[in-house]
Amino acid sequence: MPSPLTIITTLLIVYLTSYIYRLIRNYLLARKSGFPYFIVPWEQDHIIWMIISVPLRPWLKKNLPTFIYNRLVLTIYGFEFTEKLRMFQEYGGQDVQSYVMVTVGKYEFSTRDPELATEILRRTRDFQQQDAIGVVLDRFGKNLLSSDGEDWVRQRRVVASTLNERISKTIFEESVKQTEGLLGDVGGGEVTGKLFDGMKKITINVLTGAGMGESVAWREDEDEGVKGKGGYRMSYIECVKVVIECVAGPIVLPKWFLEWYPSFAPGSDLLRRLNVAVEEFPRHTWELLDKEKQRMQHGSGESRSNIISQLLKASEDFEGEKKGGKALSDDEMLGNLFIFMGAGFDTTANTLSFALVLLARHPEWQDWLFTEIDDILPPPGSELSYTALLPKVTRILALMFETLRLYTPLIHLAKQTRAEQTITTSSGKTFWFPKNATVYVNTVAIHMDEKVYRNINLKPGEESKDNDELLFRPTRWLNADNTTLWTAPKGSFIPWSAGPRVCPGQKMAQVEFVSIFLRLFGEFRLEAVPLKGETRREVEERLDARMQESFSILTLQMKDLYNVDEEEKGVRVRLVRRK
Ligand code: HEM
């Protein structure tokens, strides 16, 4: 019988040998790749490290020697936003702006090179979705975001066709209606921290109203809605909110764990609500689907302009074409209706919130917006028309693009190789990727490319600056004529990704952003409210610092912006009537 000491020593030797083996293996693969590489002898994808490293980051920064921290931080989730361009400047090559990080964990490649990014995103069969996406997002069924190959092609055809012009018009009208509801709450000139919660509420109400065909009145108690009608404990909206809140982790917990998790343990309230939501979300969704089917059967046969009815219609068309072939299995139908919520909620709400904070920080850009808005809005009291207004809007879209450039919701696009791959660039150089490589397209760094963005489209009176690409300047998105939108070169502006898997909700998000801002800034100006004794300069510094403290849980967001009650926290603003 070996002694405990012998067992521990043997285990230690086995672990160390495996550790050194993995490091050397990744090192040899990196040398073969043709990319610049550097070594961080750490297991970046170890589950314990992934959980503890994010909260530990400030402590590590304070206590570790800089040369160690600067490498270790690149193994901590969300480093793309905190580190910006540094790692490419230190380790990336001159011509390809990419690197391999040699670790003890998975082989990891990152790029900020527009040409490589375009190629990676174009070749969806060679650079596929990561396995981890399915673990998190397949809770209610397989879906577009987690699928690859033929399954993805079939689902994409059906799902993407539902987000059409009819939906855009519905989205526009529903967004205006919801914004009016919000203005009823916060448009009285009072100081409020709730404007940003309002953006979340608008986004989810629009997704439910224009998406699921269940229009929600602004003042409707969230506990009401569909709740109660079939013995539900939570409304549809509440279920969606809880599930999305849990997508970054707890969603993977099995039902038995949620059921038995002790009520005195930390996080028990959220897990208890998740337990209910996981059970009731599918029931609500089936009920909405059934209702829509009934309407289609008993109505004129015309599908309504919401996502759920368009999805049913697209499925029917596909099934007709394929003579009995099913467009989406029941499981996929549910999975995709969840993905619409999951993919469309936080991304859009956070973009709206960042844009508002940027406008409160830089009020001079509000005047710039007013010029366009006042020019195109009909007289007060008239209805806002999607078809009349949308083609005329450029400045609000320029603001949206500039917000997405600086605070891109997805800080990287994560892909994975399942076989060896090569890419040959236009300069004739060939690079190699091993099987099972993690491939990151770093959107934060791509959006800060000085060769693309520095001093582009300067307008009369605007000065050129050495750090212009790091600054908030929406005019860069307008051509010299000042009325048409500038298109960034291929692979240089990818908040919605690019290639065949480009976000199908791109237009929907733009329509929502434009309609909310048209309605809001048509009537109001936004002011940042100073804390006690704060000068304007100090307000600006505080807002800049707050935006830089943003962090990513699946999407990038500001800390303490939502659900904040205390006076000193949150970002307090005031809407002041313009006319
Ligand atoms: C500002 C708002 C939005 C941003 C920045 C955004 C960004 C993205 C990005 C980067 C991807 C690619 C993800 C990847 O490949 O891993 C994506 C995919 C997707 N998005 Fe969006 N999105 C937004 C709004 C929406 C909306 C409103 C919807 C629909 C309601 C939506 C539905 C989807 C779907 C279904 C996919 C999967 C596409 C596929 O894999 O073929 N998104 N989005």
From TrEMBL:
UniProt keyword annotation of Transmembrane helix present: yes
Origin: domain of life: Eukaryota
Membrane spanning residue stretches: 6-24
The entry's keywords: Heme, Iron, Membrane, Metal-binding, Monooxygenase, Oxidoreductase, Transmembrane, Transmembrane helix
Residue numbers binding heme: C503
InterPro entries associated with the record: Cyt_P450 (IPR001128), Cyt_P450_CS (IPR017972), Cyt_P450_E_grp-I (IPR002401), Cyt_P450_sf (IPR036396), Cytochrome_P450_monoxygenase (IPR050121)
GO molecular function, one term: heme binding
Cofactor(s) listed: heme
Family: Belongs to the cytochrome P450 family.
Stored PANTHER family: CYTOCHROME P450 (PTHR24305), CYTOCHROME P450 12A4, MITOCHONDRIAL-RELATED (PTHR24305:SF166)
Protein name (database record): Cytochrome P450 monooxygenase
Organism whose genome encodes this protein: Zasmidium cellare ATCC 36951
